[in-house]
TrEMBL record:
<feature type="domain" description="HTH crp-type">
    <location>
        <begin position="150"/>
        <end position="216"/>
    </location>
</feature>
<dbReference type="InterPro" id="IPR014710">
    <property type="entry name" value="RmlC-like_jellyroll"/>
</dbReference>
<dbReference type="InterPro" id="IPR012318">
    <property type="entry name" value="HTH_CRP"/>
</dbReference>
<keyword id="KW-0804">Transcription</keyword>
<keyword id="KW-0238">DNA-binding</keyword>
<protein>
    <submittedName>
        <fullName>CRP-like cAMP-binding protein</fullName>
    </submittedName>
</protein>
<dbReference type="InterPro" id="IPR036390">
    <property type="entry name" value="WH_DNA-bd_sf"/>
</dbReference>
<dbReference type="InterPro" id="IPR050397">
    <property type="entry name" value="Env_Response_Regulators"/>
</dbReference>
<dbReference type="Pfam" id="PF13545">
    <property type="entry name" value="HTH_Crp_2"/>
</dbReference>
<dbReference type="InterPro" id="IPR018490">
    <property type="entry name" value="cNMP-bd_dom_sf"/>
</dbReference>
<keyword id="KW-0805">Transcription regulation</keyword>
<dbReference type="Pfam" id="PF00027">
    <property type="entry name" value="cNMP_binding"/>
</dbReference>
<dbReference type="InterPro" id="IPR000595">
    <property type="entry name" value="cNMP-bd_dom"/>
</dbReference>
<dbReference type="InterPro" id="IPR036388">
    <property type="entry name" value="WH-like_DNA-bd_sf"/>
</dbReference>
Amino acid sequence: MNTAYRYFGDIKQNHLLAALPQADADRWRGQLEPVELTRSQVLCAAGSVPEYVYFPITGIASLVYLTQEGASAEVAVVGNDGMVGVSLLLGGGSAPSEAVVQSSGLALRLSASFLRSEMDRSGAIAKVMLRYAQAVLGQVAQTAVCNRYHSIEQQLCRRLLLGLDRSYSDEIEMTHELAANLLGVRREGITIAAHKLQEAGLIRYHRGHIVVLDRPRLEKQTCECYAVAKKEYRRLLPMALAA
C-alpha cells in the first residue's frame, strides 16, 4: 500500500528531525527524499557502511544482532522517534547490527555524506544527533537487562508498546514467529504469553496482526524497562532543543 499520502511534506512527522533547529531543518528539506519501506527490507547489513540514513515516518525498523548459528535478537526499535544509521553519528562507520524493516511505511532518506558534513558544520545538529545516539544506547542496554531478567510475557508487552508508540494505529504487524525471533525466545513461549494477554482482554491477534485493546493495562503488565527507556528518550530529546 502506498503510504506517501501520510507525509504531506512535513519533516517534523519524524521527532528527531523535529528536534533540529529551524534553520538547519529548512536546509535539510531539499536533501530528504521520501521512500517506501517494505517489510523485511534490509536497510543496512551488519558490518557495512551505510550509504544512506533513514528517518521513518510511518515505517518501523529493528536493529538486530545475528549469531554465527543464525539466531537473532532485536536490540532496538526505530520508528518516527529517530533514524536508522546511528553508527555514523559515533564515527565508527560500519554498523554492528542489521537494520531490517518490520512494518512497511514511509521514511525520509538522507545521504550519509550529507549528514557527516552537516554534523561537522553545525554544533547544534551534532548535539541533537549525539543525544539521539545516547538514547539508542540506552534502549540497547535496557533491552539486554529485560531479556535477561524479565518474563517472556513482560518482554512481549514491552515490545508491543514500543511498536505502538511508533505506529499510527492500535494494530501491529507481528506473527508469533517474528516476535520470538525479535526477543530471542522460543515460539511456544510467545504463543503462551500472547494467549494469556488475549484471554485477559489486553490484545487480539489474528494471522500476523496484533490489535492492542487496552493500553493502560498493557503498560501495567510490562516491566519497568519500557518506562525507563521512554523517560530517558524524553530527557535527551525534548521537541525543541536549545542550540
